[in-house]
Amino acid sequence: MSENRLFGMAPESGRWLFILFGFIINICLGSVYAYSVFNKHVQELLGSSATWAGMPFMVFLAVFAIMVFVGGQLIGKLGPRNLGILGGVVVGLGWMLASQSPNIGVLIITYGLIGGAGVGLAYGVPLAVVGRWFPDKRGLALGLTIAGFGGSPFVSAYVAASIISSAGPMQAFFTMGLAFLIVICVFFIPFRYPADGWAPTGFTAATTGAGSVDFTTGEMVKTKAFYGLFLSYTIGCLAGLMAIGISSPVGQEIIVIPATAAATLVGVFAIFNGLGRPLFGSVTDKLNPQKAAIISFVIILVCSLGMLVAKEGSVALYVTCFIGFWLCLGGWLAIGPTATNAYFGVTNYAKNYGVVFLAYGLGAILGSIISGQARDVFGSYMFAFVPTAVLAVLGIIIAFVMMTPPKK
Questions:
Q1: Confidence band of 206 (pLDDT split at 50, 70, 90)
Q2: What is the pLDDT of residue 208?
Q3: Three-state secondary structure readout of the chain
Q4: Which of 190, 222, 303, 398 has a 20 to 30 Å separation from 319 between CA atoms?
Q5: What is the pLDDT of residue 1?
Q6: Residues 6+ apart with CB under 8 A from 215
Q7: How far apart are CA 111 and CA 23, in angstroms?
Q8: What was the pLDDT predicted at 50?
């Protein structure tokens, strides 16, 4: 159909550019994961404690999760292009306003509240658009699109560190914010849905089974599958986000490696976070969301048990386990949207995934509490891996019993 020609190409070819554009957009959006590069400088410049210096990051993640839900409600009214551009403007403003912060409270509002809101508004747009253009390879396509978010620190941490070393952290906030505003808005311009009824050549949509029936959000939250997916998503994100927050201090305090080596390894871990998305997206396509979820929980369990026996000098064990944690976090950010599409249909996907994605915010909060309490109460981050091991076993049970295709 001529109305579906994309960038001068047949839609089966042109649609792949949406993945590329979404990947680039997600590199900008995922720069939040590079906040640890700013952390120490923020403490020194604004005279903040370590706890308060981490608050902009935590507020960012919480607001991000909430605003994905809000974005899901707005996409039908504004359309994907307009919502994406709105999100890009808010992201850029949040980062640029952060550069003027005189204290940590203002940084929490600008970077955490405004920046997090912008990312939340924009985040679901590439997923909603790519999901409709790729009904035949949905898991792989979604995984590749959001791989940029998880792998972003591999690029953004280096850029931020370079600007900070030459001009300071506040200039880094401004320069990166301006770049994000331009890049995100430009790459969202071509985003649109395919025409109603379009499908790739040779693809026939299922008329029965998972994904063949569209659920409204109200209908979705009444199903066992929703609660199984939500709880599993929470556990998967809890373990992964906790690992992201403590990767460097665990390396320094438990394994006793230099701070520079720990920082380098965080960049390596970020690569696997990005790879986890297309990898688990493909696994979800070939198997199903339930089996992909169980595989991720087995990996989390093994890695948690590995860290419980880690000690000074256990570098290989530490690297292997944290690769597993970061890989599975990336995996859940592919399993989650793919399962939402497969279980509850594409028509109300943006709204439905906005509700499901609240599990990410809940996981971020619980993961921070668990790691912080382990360090404060027991004196070591090692004790944080006891809850993740127990929760991984619980996740296997929940996924096996509850993550099954719903019937309307």
A1: low
A2: 47
A3: CHHHCECCECHHHHCHHHHHHHHHHHHHHHHHHHHHHHHHHHHHHHCCCHHHHCHHHHHHHHHHHHHHHHHHHHHHHHCHHHHHHHHHHHHHHHHHHHCCCCCHHHHHHHHHHHHHHHHHHHHHHHHHHHHHHCCCCHHHHHHHHHHHHHHHHHHHHHHHHHHHHHHCHHHHHHHHHHHHHHHHHHHHCCCCCCCCCCCCCCCCCCCCCCCCCCCCHHHHCCCHHHHHHHHHHHHHHHHHHHHHHHHHHHHHHCCCCCHHHHHHHHHHHHHHHHHHHHHHHHHHHHCCHHHHHHHHHHHHHHHHHHHHCCCCCCHHHHHHHHHHHHHHHHHHHHHHHHHHHHHHCCCCHHHHHHHHCHHHHHHHHHHHHHHHHHHHHHCCHHHHHHHHHHHHHHHHHHHHHHCCCCCC
A4: 398
A5: 43
A6: 223, 343, 344, 345, 348, 352, 406, 408
A7: 22
A8: 63
Residue 51 has what pLDDT? Answer: 66
Is the per-residue pLDDT at 65 higher than 60?
A: yes
CATH of domain 7-193: 1.20.1250.20
Residue 111 near residue 94 (C-beta atoms within 8 A): yes
Every domain of the chain and the residues it spans: 7-193, 209-408
Same fold, 7-193 and 209-408: yes
Domain formed by 209-408, architecture: Up-down Bundle (1.20)
Residues 6 or more apart from 222 whose CB is under 8 A from it?
none
Kindly report, residue by residue over 238-290, the tens digit of the pLDDT: 998 888 878 878 888 899 988 778 777 877 888 898 889 889 988 998 999 99
pLDDT at 15 exceeding the cut of 70: yes
Q: Percent of the chain, pLDDT > 70?
A: 96
pLDDT over 70 at 209, yes or no: no
